[in-house]
Amino acid sequence: MKSVVTIVLLILSNTFMTLAWYGHLKFAEWKWFNKLGLIAIVLISWGIAFFEYCFQVPANKIGFKGNGGPFSLIQLKVIQEVITLVIFVIFTILVFKKETFRVNHAIGFVFLILAVYFIFKK
Length: 122
What we know:
Elements: H1 2-27, H2 31-34, H3 38-63, H4 73-95, H5 103-120
Helix pairs in contact: 1-3, 1-4, 4-5
């Protein structure tokens, strides 16, 4: 059960992280947003990233073996990275419709999945 909770929290965390890091590139299409300076955009992104931390920190605390969770620190990081890339690709395809997901991207993801396999192999 802790593994499912950890992964769900990581998915939520990475959704906010992706929005904080890349959302402003899409928000630039809004007239009022274009009038903001870089400092304002950073502060807005920082505000969004706050929610990332609200999910990321509990995910790591619940999921870490040292706290009774099912994952080692390395496993947590690899899970987080794969989730980050999956969320990023979904976000890119849905929000930035001009971006394309190509074969070389798919091949790269296969290697990432292999990385997860080897990280979890005993």
